[in-house]
Amino acid sequence: MSEKKVHEDQKYVEGLLNNNSFIIQAIYDKFVPKVVNYIKQNSGDADQAQDIIQETIVTIYNQAKEKGLELTCPFDAYFFLLCKRKWLNALKKNKNKEVTINEEVLSKDDDAHELAFETELFDEKQALFNEMFQKLGKACKDLIKATFKINSMEEVAASLGVTYGYARKKKSLCIGQLTKLVQESPKFNQLNY
Amino acid sequence: MEDQDYILFDNYINNELSEDEISAFEERMDKDLVFANSFNLYLETTIFLQNSIRNEDETNDFKKNLETISKDYFSQDKVKSTTSVETKTKPFTLVKYLVAACIALLFGVFAFNQFGGEPSYSDFNSHEPMTIVRGNVKDLIQATKAFNNKEYEKANILLKNVLENDPDNSELQLYYAITNIELDNFKVADKELNKLINGASAYKDRALWYSALSRLKQKNIDATIVLLKQITEEADDYKEAQKLLDKLE
Questions:
Q1: Closest residue in B to A71 (Cα–Cα)
Q2: Mutate which of A1, A39, A180 to disrupt the B interface (most B C-beta within 10 Å)?
Q3: Chain B residue closest to A15 (CA)?
Q4: Model confidence over B198-226: pLDDT tens digits?
Q5: Do A172 and B70 touch (CB under 8 A)?
Q6: Structural domain spans, chain B
Q7: Whether residue A128 has pLDDT greater than 60
């Protein structure tokens, strides 16, 4: 077991989890200028920075919500690294553009690197699951959504006008189909499975 | 995997198999790597669906709020027109000063709570997140989620249930004890921790640490110190224990 103590900046993560506008505003005021500056110095503009920052905050929120993210480093270092890597990935996708990378503001914080890596992995897995979920047929999607929204399979079956036995069996097969789609995706093997 | 495997996975996750079927399932998990990997992915997929669909409304509310704050922030001329943070001058208005003062005050309170005065239990209760172990999977997933979300009351009930079927699982005993400390059920917590301290499991040392934290929360400083001093250098929590000892002595 690790000895790492949760950093006091965990308050930002908790604030995001509670959808606390004060904290979100504080993140923008304190940490966003550095990211905007970095993106502008590396072939980007304010609009692109706005998107990257928003996506990064949603990723942090999701990870906190679903995996109980615990910060072991300053929020600043973690947040900056995530935004930076997201921006570099976006640049790589758009190869036609001439890119200048200014690496002066690199973080040297190991914990931040490790945490940012975990968050990225989480984000990529989520994206893969989401992408493959969209590929399922409508019947499967509807059944899965109803199953996890309603919680009682009897009610799910009734709402979809099918028998309980059919709904149960179909649910397993739909999730099975989703795992197959995920497994067959070329991205699957890149994600440390 | 065949259709019947997916049905089996689902029945296992929902705890709908007989004891014999569970034994056969777990035996196959140990022997058949492809089967085990498929099950793990099935479980991960289920957890993903559970989280993303159940939290959909809350996540959408969060995104809307974020969008508003983001738009507001980026609509300010300072972001559009400057290229460098260093060269930027912030046009502060009185209202902004007040907002900044409020935020500063808020953080001041946070900081004071965390570091001011005597050490307290809340300075040290950053628990190692629970990870799923084998056993009654359905309740365990719920318990893990509840514990990691700091919903200790819920985690406490679920862990108690799981422990009834698996009373010798020391990892579960430890997490059950932690939820009891969080809920101020000190008698139960201390009893569970004593069992671990006197046992031979891998959680012996950690139980000592939590036993000390329990006494700290009960403001029994002498007992806290006695317990902290028993934590050996090899223990994961040694550093933290020393830090707390320094503050207490």
A1: B126
A2: A1
A3: B62
A4: 887 777 888 989 999 999 998 888 888 88
A5: no
A6: 1-82, 91-123, 128-248
A7: yes
pLDDT at B109: 44
> Smallest CA–CA separation between A75 and chain B, in Å?
14
Report pLDDT for A96: 56
Distance from the Cα of A110 to chain B's closest Cα (Å) equals: 19
Nearest to A83 by CA among A122, A145, A32, A28: A32
Question: How many CB atoms sit inside 10 A of residue A40's CB?
Answer: 18
Question: One-letter amino acid identity for A1?
Answer: M
- List CB contacts (< 8 A) between A53 and chain B: 70
Q: Using the predicted structure, report yes or no on whether residue B41 has a pLDDT greater than 90.
A: yes
- Give buried/exposed letters for A115-126 (b at 16+ CB in 10 A, else e): bbeebbebbebb
What are residue A162's phi and psi, to 5 degrees? -125, 170
Q: Which of A21, A53, A126 sits opposite B65 (nearest CB)?
A: A21
| Spatial contact of A36 and A49, defined as CB atoms under 8 Å apart | yes
- For B228, residues 6+ apart whose C-beta sits below 8 A from its C-beta are B209, B212, B241, B244, B245, B248
Q: Is the ipTM of this complex over 0.95?
A: no
Residue B237 carries which DSSP code? T
Compute the nearest-CA separation of A95 from chain B (Å): 23
Least Cα distance to A89 among A57, A114, A124, A113 occurs for A124
Buried b (16+ CB within 10 A) or exposed e, A7-32: bebbbbbbbbbebeeebbbbbbeebb
Contact (CB, 8 A) for B230 and B105: no
The CATH code for residues B128-248 is: 1.25.40.10
CB of A19 less than 8 A from some CB of B? yes
> Is the Cβ of B65 closer than 8 Å to some Cβ of chain A?
yes
Q: Which of B38, B74, B149 sits opposite A50 (nearest CB)?
A: B74
How many beta-carbon pairs under 8 angstroms link A with B? 149
Q: What would the DSSP string read from start to end of B169-216?
A: -HHHHHHHHHHHHHTT-HHHHHHHHHHHHHS-STTHHHHHHHHHHHHH
B76-80 — which CB contacts under 8 Å span 24+ positions? B79/A36, B79/A46, B79/A49, B80/A46
Instruction: Return d(Cα A122, Cα A109) in angstroms, integer.
Output: 20
Determine whether the interchain pair B79/A67 forms a contact, defined as Cβ–Cβ distance below 8 Å.
no
